[in-house]
Design brief:
This protein is α/β, with parallel strands linked by helices.
Length: 979
Amino acid sequence: MADAAGKYLDVYRSWQQHLFNFNLDDRETETPGLRKPQLAALYASLGHLVMSPGTTATIVMPTGTGKTDTMLGLLIAGRLARTLVLVPTDPLRSQFSEKCVELKKLREIGAVSDTALNPVVRVISSGMQVEEIQQLAEANVIVATPQALLFFSNEALEALAGLCTHLVVDEAHHVAAMTWSRVKTAFKERPCLQFTATPFREDSQPLDGKIIYNYPLKDAQNDGYFKQIEFHPVREYDLELADQAVADKAVELLRKDRGQGFNHLLLVRARTQARAIKLFPLYEKHEDLSPVLIHSKVPNRDRLLDEIVAKKHKIIVCVDMLGEGFDLPELKIAAIHDQHQSPAVTLQFIGRLTRVSKELGDAKFVSNIANQRVDSQMAALYKESADWSAVIRDVSQDKIAREIEKEAFTEQFSDDADAEDIFGLNPNPKVSAVAYHVERENWRPEKAHFFAQSKKQRDFVSINEASDTIIVVAQQETPVSWAKTSAIVDTNWVIYMAYYHVPDRTLFVHTSADEKEATRFLKLIAKDPKRINGEPVFRTLHDIKLMRLQNVGLSRARKDLKFTMHVGRDVNTIIREIETGAAKKSNIFATGYEDGQRATVGCSHKGKIWEMNSSTVSYWIEWCKRASSKLNNKDITPADILKDVMRADKIEAAWPTGLFYADWPESIEIENEQRISLEFEGEVFNLLDVELGKPRRTNDLTLDVAVIAIAEDGAERELPDITVRLLEDSYKFSCPGVKIIFSEANSFEQYLDANPLVFLAVDGSMVEGNYRFYSTKSLDLKLPIGLLEAWEWGDTPIHKESMKAAGDLNTVQGFTYSRIKDDYTFIFNDDGKGEIADLVAIRESKDAIYVDLYHCKYCPQKDGKAQAGARVDDVYEVCGQASRSVKWLHTEKKFFDRMMERYQKGLPTKFDRILKGTPMDLELLRNKCHDHEMIFKFVIVQPAISKEKVSADQLAVLGTSYSYIKSVSGSEVRVITNQ
């Protein structure tokens, strides 16, 4: 043990006496030395250790620029006494420790001379006891994974932290994970430097540490540390042929490169083991290239990895990469069958194949650019003529710039450690506030620093003067409620936030503390604040469409009853009492739609406003700005706001008549439908491919709804009807044999009992469960005849509805297409079960994408003749379809994904759904929708309606659908009829 300790000291003393050579390499004269990013990163790190050793620092170096040797150089140049190096995987642990033992590269380039001895390295591969930790004292460098440290007790981990002088973290984008955080907490008092190529996480968790050095990918490319990247796209929309197309192109490139003398290898990337197994036969036939399949469960995996390193296999089919840190420069061609969703993973993946070597050529990537499923940033990679070198540079710069901006936002709050502590907590407060009118000169944010009541109280205070924002996190002790003693107390952490909206001179204050502490905070930061309370507070309910009151508190003038709280559906009496003055609004919580999106709004007479949501500080500030515009708008009359609120009547004795449309529960939006399925008799159907029929009132107490689903083979399947029976004081759904699948299968009937279907009635009311909801303002609203737009249909057989795969123009849908085709640049035939609309017609402007959804319906024949008239049955289905299509509002990329999916599924049956435009146009629209406004219009086309003979019943159904679409979406609605 003494010899081991002596060796440790010998090494450390040699480092202290050693003069690290900071010479820069010169490739023109072939003078060895450090690379430019290595030199700059070392200078930045050493400066940080001198000036700010107590704060965590992040160093950003793209893959391939010498990050590992920079970390090794820091050990010697910084003369770090005993360092724990944390790496994310076992292979990286082995790789780093092997390089650390010899310092081979640093010695080759002359950065480290013989004066400096090689470090004593110890590897932690499993848990250790406290008494075993001292054995590590013989090491200058300790290498571990967080998984190994997971088996340390808290005492053992603290002992390890006490032994080490520094913590260095490799691949730091993993650092927010639970296992990493525990280590970081134990090493909080030790200097910590984090190295990464991608300083951002895709799970929105914060990556601690200030970025002290960032070597942009653009510079790495310009300085020659990355090989050029060639992208070789294939475009195959038929999913059954796409994998073969990618494989053929990738193998072609491999053979060409090897024919030119490059010892290149081909990496085939699959998303899952099952996909890798399915892809392998496409490559297995190329026996001369010795293909191999490798994943975590393949037998003899270690032997296969050794063979891959020995380059015995020219084609490697695997899941993702071969483990983080796996370094094989000959991997130069990648066949990407399943595209990465994450920019971080994509950048890491690309970086592995772009290492510079004189013996190797440029990196090449092959992927199918049809129907890519990546975010807007990664979508740029998969365009026809994409310059991957430029795209990954721009994406990397954008993502890193966001992290730096986030730091800048944090730094605006204060120049001390409090801001870092507060934002390190990743605050996600409830969205609520009390608003006050405060003159500008009376806003005193600097006073927040005096918030602490005693020296014992621990507070964190952060002020952002540029944004007029304060955040305080305070420790608060209160007596326990169950004992009369001061011996024990409850300790709570509370947050205080204040935002001053200068244009309206309005201060918003949020706190999780009690009212007494909130008042103390307010008095400190604002002089003479005037609370906004009473009727003006209820202005926040303005412009909420289809508003439903969920909770209502009323103040009453009776001696025996001062206050009543109403929860649920008994709102009719409440509203009448408010309107007649029998009671006053105390507090209201409501749901509805605002700007075409679901909204929740709460407000109280005392001045509190809220939203049923928790979010970031920046979101809270934007929410305050929106609230300020309503609170200070004197043109909003609070008394008028409730005139359009939805009333509710309990349904008793019989279901209402006139129900014409059934939809899924309100909680299921399009995003949910994509993740939900129904299962019947072993067959699974995505909810987007399931269509509900018109409700049928079989008797006073029973409603039936047909259920039609589209199977994988494209055929229709009839599932059991959904039946809902009206009970004495409730309702009961049944749908025998059907299960609903979220993460697991459950009873569909039980789900509907808790989340009932929504039925739309001719009179404009809606039915959920055993309650009927309606607004007196829109009840029995008939569509004005002047809004009907009559077309001349000529000889069109209006009893034929669909163009089908043949593209029959002599139909209602075909005639509509012929009529509108010159008005749009892209038109899609989406007809069929699970459709968005029969025709999706799109045109663009500089900043907007205009989407018109045409819902077409045929005119039924009577005695062999189809004639327009006044039959109400002719409008039920088309109005229901139009009402349902509102759900696609604000879905952006998912909207275009759905069309692309429908387009591809039609190809094997020769059904080309694109009537005007190309698949490339659809891709471009999908990419543009992220930064273009999407403006929807809904069009009902029914030649069975005669404008001259239109009936009151028809106008009632049309009026109901029109009102519903306008209320939910705010979009324009057109109704096209016959003469």
